[in-house]
């Protein structure tokens, strides 16, 4: 397999074969993100992708169970090309259980419902989508390129196609000023979508990002560990009768919270309440990663 630049994947894809179908991110303007700043976005040729899949088959045999097609927003590829590489992947790996991609709302909504149905039929099992927030003011602050309505429309289309949807929420990305509305609006959006998974990440300003510069200048106030936990609690408290599984499966988070909605809602709130009784010096520093 041939890789270009730094390759990122969700923690849940740790055991997946990773193949770069695209390089970089077609948006690449989020004010909190530096993941693809050194890459110029391009879509790889289908033949190149197939060659990498052939290399993987030669190396791993038919043991591959899951495949993640990187980089950021591979969903932007033409549906015809995605169907071709999915079909080829399933042919090479007969025991394949899941094909996954990154796809943000801005690019998901460019697909028709029929196209998403085709991708499902071709083998797309899960989309990882970074909504980051459901609040329009926060989304504008982080330059996400989509508003809450777009996120809802995109999420509903994915769910209607029967593709598993992992939505990512960044705790604290609205700073201290927008914390409460970030939590409440994000819960409202996810209540509308009812995704399969809600995955929590906690904001850490990364050097080289615009939000890092705002943090350094004092224009953006980071949440303390307790404030981030309180925001998380408010978010979960405002989730309704949805069927999502909530996970905080990332090292950035202050506390590991996991459960299935709505049955485990009370348990998760209790877990956070306990964490809030601990002295803040028990947690990592809020600015870790922002030196």
Written account of the structure:
This protein is an alpha/beta fold and 291 residues long. The protein has one domain: Aldolase class I (TIM Barrel). It has ten helices and ten strands. It has helices at 46-60, 79-92, 105-108, 113-122, 136-141, 148-160, 179-193, 210-217, 225-237, 265-275; strands at 17-20, 22-23, 42-43, 66-70, 98-102, 124-132, 164-171, 197-202, 245-247, 258-260. The strands form two sheets. Strands 1-4-5-6-7-8-9-10 form an eight-stranded mixed sheet. It has a two-stranded antiparallel sheet with strand order 2-3. Helix 2 (79-92) packs parallel to helix 4 (113-122). The two termini are 34 Å apart. The mean pLDDT is 95.
Helix content: 25-40%
Any idea of the CATH topology? TIM Barrel
What is the C-level CATH assignment?
A: Alpha Beta
Q: What ranges have pLDDT less than 50 throughout 5 or more consecutive residues? A: none
What does the radius of gyration come to?
19 Å
Strand order of the biggest β-sheet? 1-4-5-6-7-8-9-10
At the fourth level of CATH, the homologous superfamily is Aldolase class I
How far from one another are the termini? 34 Å
Q: Count of helices? A: 10
The largest β sheet comes out as: 8 strands, mixed
Named at the architecture level, the CATH assignment is Alpha-Beta Barrel
Please state the overall shape, judged from the principal axes of the Cα atoms. globular
Query: What is the arithmetic mean of pLDDT?
Result: 95
Number of strands: 10
Overall SS class? alpha/beta
The H/E string reads: EEEHEHEHHEHHEHEHHEEH
- % residues in beta strands: 15-25%
Give the tally of structural domains. 1
